[in-house]
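Deliverable D2.4 — example input (structure tokens):
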């Protein structure tokens, strides 16, 4: 059971967060910088920043990045890992607002299916990606929508409750996300999966900031300015 939790709830989720950072999050930063400077000066360089960030934020790219990162975290063979790009893209698109959770679930299943057949035949270069992609895209068509809806429903419930009781729910959300930040799981992946925005998203940010600053100050003697 511990191995199962570590592999699928810790390693896979951490990989998903890395893929999220390397696509949606950095893309949003790059695009926002370009948009802000474009307001001051209509320069081709700033427009390039907007375009580059938009490419990174594309739902197809984000899904592919998360799925490949999950495959890397799970240590699957290379053919399986590269085939997960198509799986992640399909899952993120068909999963809608809750696409990141759909990517996590479906990419794990597709990765394990591909790993089962990897190097078992003489035509591995065909069989492995075929099984991985067909398994992942079939699950995307059949299940991603409902996984995404479930994740969105939970996120909407949290956001609704936060609007109803801002102080109490704000404290709860910030503490829970802060605790998740201290655990081996990924708080970024959780928030992305539930699509937290508005007051709830702000509370999650506050919880992350409080913990991050606390960690940085507490560990300054060991980690110095790099850790800070």
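Example output (designed residues):
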């Amino acid at each position: 059971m511990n191995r199962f939790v570590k592999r699928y709830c810790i390693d896979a989720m951490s990989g998903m967060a890395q893929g999220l950072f390397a696509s949606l999050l950095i893309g949003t930063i790059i695009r926002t910088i370009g948009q802000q400077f474009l307001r001051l000066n209509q320069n081709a360089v700033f427009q390039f920043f907007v375009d580059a960030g938009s490419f990174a934020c594309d739902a197809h790219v984000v899904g592919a990045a998360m799925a490949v990162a999950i495959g890397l975290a799970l240590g699957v063979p290379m053919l399986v890992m590269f085939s997960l790009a198509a799986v992640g893209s399909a899952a993120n698109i068909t999963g809608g607002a809750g696409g990141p959770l759909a990517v996590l679930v479906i990419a794990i299943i597709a990765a394990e299916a591909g790993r089962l057949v990897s190097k078992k035949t003489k035509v591995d270069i065909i069989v492995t990606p075929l099984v991985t992609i067909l398994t992942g895209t079939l699950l995307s068509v059949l299940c991603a929508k409902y996984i995404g809806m479930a994740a969105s429903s939970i996120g909407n419930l949290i956001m609704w409750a936060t609007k109803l009781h801002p102080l109490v729910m704000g404290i709860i959300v910030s503490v829970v996300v802060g605790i998740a930040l201290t655990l081996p799981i990924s708080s970024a992946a959780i928030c992305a999966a539930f699509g937290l925005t508005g007051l709830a998203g702000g509370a999650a940010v506050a919880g992350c900031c409080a913990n991050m600053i606390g960690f940085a100050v507490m560990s300054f003697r060991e980690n110095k300015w790099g850790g800070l």
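The chain has a mean pLDDT of 89.
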